[in-house]
Specification:
Elements: H1 2-25, E1 28-29, E2 35-36, E3 40-47, E4 60-62, E5 65-67, E6 74-78, E7 86-98, E8 102-118, E9 125-136, E10 142-146, E11 148-150, E12 163-173, E13 182-194, E14 200-216, H2 221-242
Antiparallel strand pairs: 1-3, 2-3, 3-7, 4-5, 6-14, 7-13, 8-12, 8-14, 9-10, 9-13, 11-12
Length: about 240
């Protein structure tokens, strides 16, 4: 009887765990999750925790794409025990549909923020982690990159002295093959702040700008010649008909 009770509890705990994971992974739509830019349309825009795009707002549409201004995307810790005490994370996703006559050739995300570290301790540090995934929605081919930050290691004991300053990061996917017209963009970010007794740490993300590299498709000379030839034949037929 006790074995059965334990098994029931284990199953219930497992269901609760995976249920919590599925809730965490659910995307919350932007106020207006679809729109258009010069080179592509976008839709299905959402975030998991509304840090990239605060509730009731949208990204800013610029001539080159989209710009995000996170709100309260920060981690801070004071007088801690050296273990990870503060973590902030969010997942941003949206689909892009490249307009006719244009080709997606690259995708770069630039991130900007600031950090403060007061005092020195063996674990006192701030960290930024991230990853960018692109999925071809027609073939399900995937390309990805991880976040590269400057300073390269954000944290005392890893090459960054106590103080304050700005940090930048980027993920970049280049040489995307021809034919990527419908693409899902997924950006995961984690900020972490650790401290020791007598120390403090703080890190915040402030601006995120995905840069979509779009090339205009120029017909090959042979195609242009055939097009002109077809136009000439059409004009000749019209002249004969009028005669």
């Amino acid at each position: 009887m006790r074995v059965k009770q334990l098994l029931t509890l284990a199953i219930a705990a497992s269901i609760a765990f995976w249920g919590a994971c599925s809730v965490r992974a659910a995307q919350i739509p932007w106020q207006h999750p679809s729109g258009t830019t010069t080179d592509y349309d976008f839709d299905n825009g959402g975030t998991s925790d509304q840090l990239f795009v605060p509730a009731g707002t949208d990204p800013v549409v610029t001539p080159s794409g989209l710009a995000f201004f996170p709100s309260d995307f920060k981690a801070q810790s004071a007088n801690g025990s050296g273990l990870p005490q503060s973590t902030a994370s969010d997942k941003l996703s949206f689909d892009i549909h490249v307009k006719p006559g244009k080709q997606l050739s690259g995708f770069t995300v630039n991130e900007f923020g600031d950090y403060t570290i007061q005092g020195v301790g063996p674990h006192t540090a701030v960290k930024a982690f991230g990853s960018l995934f692109l999925t071809n929605l027609d073939t399900f081919e995937v390309r990805f990159d991880t976040l590269h930050t400057t300073p390269a290691a954000l944290g005392v004991g890893s090459g960054v002295v106590a103080g304050e300053g700005a940090w930048t990061g980027n993920e970049s996917i280049v040489a995307i093959p021809a034919g990527w017209k419908n693409v899902r963009v997924e950006l995961d970010n984690i900020l972490q702040a650790n401290s020791d007794p007598g120390t403090q740490s703080f890190i915040e993300k402030k601006v995120v700008t995905p840069g979509v590299e779009i090339n205009i498709i120029i017909p090959e000379p042979a195609s242009i010649t055939l097009g002109l030839l077809g136009t000439g034949l059409l004009l000749s037929r019209r002249r004969r008909a009028m005669a």
